[in-house]
Design a protein that fits this description.
single chain; alpha+beta; 4-stranded antiparallel sheet; NAP_family; Nucleosome assembly protein 1-like 1
Length: 333
C-alpha cells in the first residue's frame, strides 16, 4: 500500500507545504535580544500545556452532550429500521417559501403520491439509509466497492462512544447491523486512542489531540462471503521440466470493510504507518464529527451542498488530500 514513491512524495509535499521558511532575521539579533526570545519560547511551552488541558475539557464536553444527543439518535435509528412509526405531527415539515405550492398544486401532488404508494409495496422504515449516506459522500463513496453494497444495506445505525471519565482520551465507532448472510457480528467497532499532551522533546509541534493508535475488530465472515479477500489463479512454469500448472491464491481485495483492519503500530512507529494512520483517522473523525450527527442531511444531499458552500479556491487543495487518502486505502497500491 505504502510502497508507491509517488504517493509518499505527494504526502510529504503536502506536509511540507504547511510550514514556512525562516527569514534569517533571528540569527542577526544581538545576544541580549535572543535571550528575551528564549523567554517567549518558554511562555509558548506553557501555552501548549494550557491548550492541551483545553482539549481535554472539550472532550469532557463532547461526552456530556453525546448523552443528550443519544436519545434523538436512538429514535432516528428506530425510524430507519422500522421499529417506530413517526406520527403525522412528527412527519410534518414546512417547506422553504420558494418551494411552497398553491393549494390546488398541493392537492394534485398529494393525489399523485397516494396513487404511486398504492401501486408499490409499503417498504419498512427507510431502506438503504446508511448505504445512501455513504454513497453521497465523496470521502466514503470511493471506499465502497460493488460487493460492499449488499452488506451495507443491512447497516442499521452508527453510534459514537467516548472514553469514560478519567480514562485516556478515545472514541469508538459502532456499526450496528441487522442479521445477514455475510457475517455473524451484530456490531463492528473501530476505536481511536488519542493523546492531548505536548511532546517533551518537541512541545512546539503540539496542534491539538493526535491519534496514537487505532484498533478494529475481527469480522466473523460466513464461509465464502469474505469480501476483503479474493481468489486469483496464476500459471507457474517449472524451471526444470518446463511444465505449467495453475495455482489458486487468496489475496487482499478492495473493500470498505478493510476499515475494520487498520495497520498495526502507533503513530511513532514509522513514517509509512503514520501516514496510513493519519488517513484512517481523517475518515474516522469525519464519520464522528459530520456523518453521525447530520446523517439525514447527507441522505437527502442537503449537507453536501452546505459542505460545498464552505469551500472556496482552497477546496481544490482539500480534494487533493481526499484523493490521497483514497489511494492510501487501496489494496492495489
Amino acid at each position: 500500500m505504502m510502497q508507491n514513491p509517488q504517493i509518499l512524495a505527494a504526502l510529504q509535499e503536502r506536509l511540507d507545504g504547511l510550514n514556512g521558511s525562516p527569514s534569517g532575521y533571528m540569527e542577526s539579533l544581538p545576544k541580549v535580544v535572543k535571550r528575551r526570545v528564549n523567554a517567549l519560547k518558554n511562555l509558548q511551552v506553557k501555552c501548549a500545556h494550557i491548550e492541551a488541558k483545553f482539549y481535554e475539557e472539550v472532550h469532557e464536553l463532547e461526552r456530556k452532550y453525546a448523552a443528550l444527543y443519544q436519545p434523538l439518535f436512538d429514535k432516528r435509528s428506530d425510524i430507519v429500521k422500522a421499529a417506530y412509526e413517526p406520527t403525522d405531527e412528527e412527519c410534518e415539515w414546512k417547506a422553504d417559501e420558494e418551494e411552497e405550492l398553491t393549494d390546488e398544486m398541493k392537492e394534485k401532488a398529494k393525489l399523485e403520491e397516494e396513487k404511486k404508494d398504492e401501486e408499490k409495496e409499503d417498504p419498512k422504515g427507510i431502506p438503504e439509509f446508511w448505504l445512501t449516506v455513504f454513497k453521497n459522500v465523496d470521502l466514503l463513496s470511493d471506499m465502497l466497492q460493488e460487493h460492499d453494497e449488499p452488506i451495507l444495506k443491512h447497516l442499521q445505525d452508527i453510534k459514537v462512544k467516548f472514553s469514560d471519565p478519567g480514562q485516556p482520551m478515545s472514541f469508538t465507532l459502532e456499526f450496528h447491523f441487522e442479521p445477514n448472510d455475510f457475517f455473524t457480528n451484530t456490531v463492528l467497532v473501530k476505536t481511536y486512542k488519542m493523546r492531548s499532551e505536548p511532546d517533551e522533546n518537541d512541545p512546539f509541534s503540539f496542534d491539538g489531540p493526535e491519534i496514537m493508535c487505532c484498533t478494529g475488530c475481527t469480522i466473523e465472515w460466513t464461509k465464502g462471503k469474505n469480501v476483503t479477500l479474493k481468489t486469483i489463479k496464476k500459471k507457474q512454469k517449472h524451471k526444470g521440466r518446463g511444465t505449467v500448472r495453475t495455482v489458486t491464491k487468496t489475496v487482499p481485495n478492495d473493500s470498505f470493510f478493510n476499515f475494520f483492519t487498520p495497520p498495526e503500530g502507533k503513530r511513532e512507529s514509522d513514517e509509512d504507518t503514520e501516514a496510513v494512520l493519519a488517513a484512517d483517522f481523517e475518515i474516522g473523525h469525519f464519520i464522528r464529527e459530520r456523518i453521525v450527527p447530520r446523517a439525514v442531511l447527507y441522505f437527502t444531499g442537503e449537507a453536501i451542498e452546505d459542505d460545498d458552500d464552505d469551500y472556496d479556491e482552497e477546496g481544490e487543495e482539500a480534494d487533493d488530500e481526499v484523493r490521497l487518502f483514497r489511494t492510501l486505502w487501496s489494496t492495489d497500491v
